[in-house]
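Q: Could you write out the predicted structure for this multi-component system? I'm mainly interested in how the pieces pack against one another.
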Amino acid sequence: MSSAPDPEDLTARARIRDAAMRHFGEHGFERTTIRGIAETAGVSSGLVRHHFGSKEELRKACDDYVLRTVRKLNDETWAAMREGDLGKAAAVRRPSGAYHRYIARSLVDGGASELFDEMVRMSEAWLTAFPREGAESDVPLRDRAAIGTAWGLAIPIMFEHLSRAFGVDLSTPEGDVRLASALLDLYSHPLMSPEEAAAARAGLKGLRHD
Amino acid sequence: MSSAPDPEDLTARARIRDAAMRHFGEHGFERTTIRGIAETAGVSSGLVRHHFGSKEELRKACDDYVLRTVRKLNDETWAAMREGDLGKAAAVRRPSGAYHRYIARSLVDGGASELFDEMVRMSEAWLTAFPREGAESDVPLRDRAAIGTAWGLAIPIMFEHLSRAFGVDLSTPEGDVRLASALLDLYSHPLMSPEEAAAARAGLKGLRHD
DNA sequence: GTCTATATAATGATAGAC
DNA sequence: GTCTATCATTATATAGAC
């Protein structure tokens, strides 16, 4: 899916980082062992230390790499949209399984603040470039972008749960279409009528906070 | 916010479980130590073992408790809706901070499958009881309920990130209103126009899966 | 750049006294 | 029901050879 590997890749350092990302994503930071990463990367634990110093530094390297990758994907999506190639734009945005779990974990561990903030800024740019019709809301753009980002991330974060609920492995082509269809349906139809929203808003006003 | 504590609470056993939920939620399962839980609960580590046998069993007890709590909240929401008390329904649904992080972690660790599945069933019931207008979609109810559940959970899961993006602590009354307003806005306005959705759907069809 | 071997610290589990 | 003391395991970090 595009995104040629960095030149610095293919090296032992890159293999270690990729293995780390997989282990962190699958087992979480704490349960992941340097020895396990080393084994997956086909190197010794000593070499991991040599390249990254500590487990914590290794995580930072992974965070940086993910951030760079997301930026690149965003740029590619803009390019595809400028060319009017919607299919390509969708393909680029399609989440690549390798980063899914790592991002999900990282987000919940609280370590991916930079990534989240950047994605909110990206969402703001998208919402500005493609405003929905009849949009004269008093809700700040930033707020909508933030929730949009959270909703977008909810998919990779709960990927396994969603697959189970759908009854299909969403990482397969069939599952992918099912997921995209459902998302498109939800994105193009409001979940509440204007009346329901007004009623809820009114109910909100009379709310006691305890 | 309703939900009187279980009768079995107030005991050392309950204090341990509550402390465990806090520690698991804040630091994750692996990083949490039995000694730390014991200290927070004001008991010895030996007593934790006495009551729950092992760390894993303790986690299961937490999962059960959360599941029971979510069921109770759902029932209370139905009751409030039947009474037409929308404000109360909103108040009940308001996430209680104590379970937020625990649920978020649990969901990402893959341990809360039962909870997620139950919430999807609850969402199906809600979507059935309150169908949106003009709903003659070929997208299965279950699929929409699953994504709706994931979106709903995205808020507590990324609570800190959202607070940072909003520039307000969303657990405060002011933040709460900001969040609810934004959610209401997004729920009552489609993010895509029918034309955009159709174009995206068409783009999806011509997609190569690699 | 890469490896082996070791030191040190922390943890879950356990046993047994009160 | 509740506690203290101890064992066995495991992982990071380190040192140093090749």
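A: Regarding packing and overall arrangement: Chain A touches chain B through 85 residues (CB under 8 Å).
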